[in-house]
Amino acid sequence: MFSKFTSILQHAVEALAPSLPLQEDFVYHWKAITHYYIETSDDKAPVTDTNIPSHLEQMLVILVQEESEREFGETGPCMEYLLHHKILETLYTLGKADCPPGMKQQVLVFYTKLLGKIRQPLLPHINVHRPVQKLIRLCGEVLATPTENEEIQFLCIVCAKLKQDPYLVNFFLENKLKSLTSKGAPNAISEETLKGHDSLSTATGQSCRPEELPGASGMEHTDLEDEPPPQMDELSASLDNLSVAALPEATVVRPNQDYNLVNSLLNLTRSPDGRIAVKACEGLMLLVSLPEPAAAKCLTQSTCLCELLTDRLASLYKALPQSVDPLDIETVEAINWGLDSYSHKEDASAFPGKRALISFLSWFDYCDQLIKEAQKTAAVALAKAVHERFFIGVMEPQLMQTSEMGILTSTALLHRIVRQVTSDILLQEMVFFILGEQREPETLAEISRHPLRHRLIEHCDHISDEISIMTLRMFEHLLQKPNEHILYNLVLRNLEERNYTEYKPVCPEDKDVVENGLIAGAVDLEEDPLFTDISPENTLSNQEWLSSSPPATPDHPKNDGKTEVHKIVNSFLCLVPDEAKSSYHVEGTGYDTYLRDAHRQFRDYCAICLRWEWPGSPKALEKCNLEATFFEGHFLKVLFDRMGRILDQPYDVNLQVTSVLSRLSLFPHPHIHEYLLDPYVNLASGCRSLFSVIVRVVGDLMLRIQRIQDFTPKLLLVRKRLLGLEPEGPMVDHVTLLEGVIVLEEFCKELAAVAFVKYHASSTP
User: Of 191, 224, 246, 487, which is most buried with the most CB atoms under 10 A?
Assistant: First the structure.
């Protein structure tokens, strides 16, 4: 109580006394602090009962005022005094001893305000960055301490200063300092640490070579600095007698002390106070983005950062319930790291495991953003760590299990993080995890070469419709990601040689105009090996199939890789016969409704694929290895197989299968366009294309229609029910087949729209 009264009285006297020159005033406040340690006998009284906090505050005020009165970069006598007398070193010692109790907090506040308020660069000076480095080591040593808030504020201001001047990070890579210290050069910094920087500005505003930086040469000393006052010797003796208790370390393994700024922040990410943890994550985000290669290498090789990211991802993933509704995983609100505050009581849409799910997705978002912001070397190392320690170590066993509920939950989580990832480097590692790195054409004998890829593609045709739909949705979102390897691995590597085509040299008779309504070279359904089981009386005539298709022109041979768009559009629109169509009975369901969506989606895909430098036309057949056995690849095989069963599959499965195929058809690669969208391609023997698969389905449909009474009215009723135009009523016979026919008709219109939009885009200059 008496101390507080003395402090108030002192402030009153200072206010009434005539103002002293700033330097004398600064020295007076510092001497007042040193006198306390020389004269006090009670070192257990809290620092708040002394005048120390007010003296430190006044010293800061004086330094800021002095700088404001001088030109930028010019060092005043007060700052000279602080640097020359190593005041920051002395304060660090007092803070480490925490004498009097609470002094560590005061020292942290002083350092933070000094670095934050002084505009001139202080960190390049050895009498600043050395005590700053020492104080950094004290931060995060013990979790949930009273000084945690001050510690994180101090660390964040240091990170902010390094972000402004990234080269300064070299002062905080201690391995170089330690190796030099062991050689008897405690005040030297290797030129290698500052490689690439010709000169640095010291705290005095003068320029010096890096090797001169740590010393105090070139400083203009005032008379007060020529020799330390006698009180300083007494203070040193008093400090020597202080007992500094060893503080228990936070529970973290430090493999190396090279980068203590990172280590201290890593410790504080474990703070029970969420605000402290978020601030520590922000500090790490600043540090990983620094462009200095030495810092990036030290960050990933000499700190626990990779382990922190992956171990926490793993523990949060394992904390999730064994079974979570896929819809909950998909629809839980967008997660931004640091903003995952969640109250179960306030949430009307709560479900079991929501808190754990939000925590996992929030931390994954942090890892994603950290890698996105990181210097490239650091980003690659961090992403590989996530790949090896989390994707392979934790997620893969869950995705490879045989429990249907476990498969569904793990696939839904994979789908969610595929949607969520934004970092190109982390996406690349995720793609390699899911698909492998293979780029050579697939063979049927080696489709299980990458076990996870094989398993996931097999799940697209799983006995459980839920698993099939979820896996197909995952692949659909994967195909929308800006990574060339995805499409190449799944599809393009198998189409590279165009060995799905049969090369026929152009003959004069191939250019003849259509005779009897048949396009030259068109495959007759009765001659198609896929349709040997269809009797002639049950098939549509060639004239009926192609009645609305314009004839081929003599100057446009089929095998140039680009058939006229109107032929293609009409081929798809006429694929489903009139008796199996129902859209013309319902307003607003015409082919033109797909054009706008197709145009927008194709434009988006073109923007994604622009940097992949795909060819504008198919590879010349003369240069293709047409003798190689064609295999469409595991992915297309499963999709085509499912497409072939469209009349016997649930409506939701059909929607998802056709959605993935339409996504594939949108890619602006000439081989994809030819294989998926050109009905007139000369298929090699035993090969199938998307068009041939649909043709076979339609042939099967025509047989089955004849056995269903009142087929057209039932078809129209089912369509209206699906559109919500008719209330649900009595069950309709053959509803699965009828729904399949409706999906097939809409899919053909969608493919026609895609073909038209792609042709229009390629022909527009």
Answer: 487
Percent helix, strand, coil in the chain, to 5, is 60, 0, 40
Q: Which has the closest alpha carbon to 315: 273, 278, 355, 363? A: 363
How many other β-carbons are positioned within 10 Å of the β-carbon of residue 741? 26
Q: Is the dihedral of CA 557, 563, 569, 573 positive or negative?
A: positive
Left (φ > 0), alpha (ψ -120 to 50) or beta: where does 20 sit?
A: beta
Length of the chain: 765
Cβ neighbours of residue 763 closer than 8 Å, sequence gap 6 or more: none
Write the CB contacts of 765 (distance below 8 Å, at least 6 apart in sequence). none
Considering only CA atoms, which of 580, 534, 575 is closest in space to residue 703? 534
DSSP output for 89-150: HHHHHHHHHT-STTHHHHHHHHHHHHHHH--S--TTSHHHHHHHHHHHHHTTSSTT-TTHHH
> Looking at residue 683, what DSSP letter applies?
B
* Of residues 460, 451, 441, the one with CA closest to residue 631: 441
Determine the pLDDT at residue 728. Answer: 85
Integer-rounded Cα radius of gyration of the chain: 37
Q: Which helix (H) or strand (E) holds 201?
A: strand 200-201
For residue 134, how many other CB atoms are within 10 A of its CB?
A: 16
pLDDT tens, 637-658? 999 999 999 999 999 999 999 9
Task: Give Cα separations from 55 to 29, 92, 689 (angstroms).
Answer: 5, 16, 83
**DSSP codes, 43-94:** TTS-GGGSSHHHHHHHHHHHHHHHHHTS-TTPPPHHHHHHHHTTHHHHHHHH
- Left, alpha or beta for 558 (phi > 0: left; psi -120 to 50: alpha)? alpha
Q: Kindly report the number of other CB atoms within 10 A of residue 38's CB atom.
A: 12
14: CB partners within 8 A, 6+ apart:
none
What SS3 state is found at 405? helix
Give the tokens for residue 601. Answer: 């989606």
Placement of tokens 């000439």 in the chain:
670
Other CB atoms within a 10 A radius of the CB of residue 50 amount to 23
For residue 282, the tally of other CB atoms under 10 A from its CB is 18
Residue 582 structure tokens: 């129902």
Q: Is 525 helix (H, G, I), strand (E, B) or coil?
A: coil
The single residue listed with the structure tokens 């904390």 is 319
**Phi, psi (rounded to 5 degrees) for 494:** -90, -10
Going by pLDDT thresholds of 50, 70 and 90, the confidence category of residue 731 is: confident
Among 286, 122, 293, smallest CA distance to 193 is for 293
Longest dimension (CA), the chain: 117
Provide DSSP, 725-742. Answer: SS---SPPTTHHHHHHHH
Task: Give 11-64 pLDDT, tens digit per residue.
Answer: 544 544 445 688 999 999 999 999 998 888 777 889 999 999 999 999 999 999
In this structure, what token pair is assigned to residue 540?
Answer: 């549509």
Q: Which amino acid, one-letter code, is at 150? A: E
Give the DSSP H/E element, type plus range, for residue 412. helix 404-420
C-beta neighbour count of 487 within 10 angstroms: 23
Please tell me the distance from the alpha carbon of residue 190 to that of residue 213, in angstroms, as a whole number: 10
pLDDT in tens, 527-543: 443 343 333 333 333 33
